[in-house]
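Per your request, structure below.
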């Protein structure tokens, strides 16, 4: 049943693309239809785990609506959950810049930064998410602990390097 729905949705979306290619008008209604088609395709590809195709659809969506924070956020989530935290951080930053008062966008950025081992910026992002009323205290505490451990590790490495230089 679900596969029939996806086939129907895919055929409808393809028909929408064909119709849109014939009309080069850039009016609001045409843009809305293009965005709807791309959004449907992206979600279909995500549900079918076709990540490269979903990525292509989100890239095209962002060309159509670069100021849509929700699309940046959805794309970032896709990237983050497919082991591309650096690319996800770029999209989360865009979403957070467009809508700085949305706690979920700040927390998403914190997640991607944690995955990238950028603990200092992750702490800042989670702090902002908490300040906006989000319930991300646990994530903030984890980021702070990782940041403290990273500082200790950096200090240890610096001492070790100094000792090695003195031994030479």
């Amino acid at each position: 049943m679900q596969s029939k729905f996806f086939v129907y949705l895919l055929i409808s979306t393809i028909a929408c693309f064909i119709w849109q290619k014939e009309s080069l008008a850039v009016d609001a209604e045409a843009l809305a239809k293009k965005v709807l088609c791309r959004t449907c395709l992206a979600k279909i590809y995500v549900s079918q785990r076709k990540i490269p195709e979903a990525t292509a659809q989100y890239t095209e969506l962002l060309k159509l609506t670069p100021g849509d924070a929700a699309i940046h956020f959805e794309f970032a989530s896709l990237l983050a959950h497919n082991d591309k935290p650096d690319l996800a951080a770029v999209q989360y930053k865009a979403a957070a810049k467009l809508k700085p008062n949305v706690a979920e966008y700040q927390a998403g950025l914190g997640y991607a930064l944690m995955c990238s081992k950028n603990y200092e910026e992750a702490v800042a992002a989670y702090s902002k998410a908490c300040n906006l009323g989000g319930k991300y205290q646990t994530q903030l505490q984890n980021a702070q602990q990782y940041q403290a451990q990273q500082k200790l590790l950096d200090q240890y490495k610096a001492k070790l390097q100094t000792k090695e230089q003195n031994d030479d």
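Helices lie at 2-22, 28-47, 51-64, 69-80, 85-98, 103-115, 119-131, 137-167.

Regards,
D.
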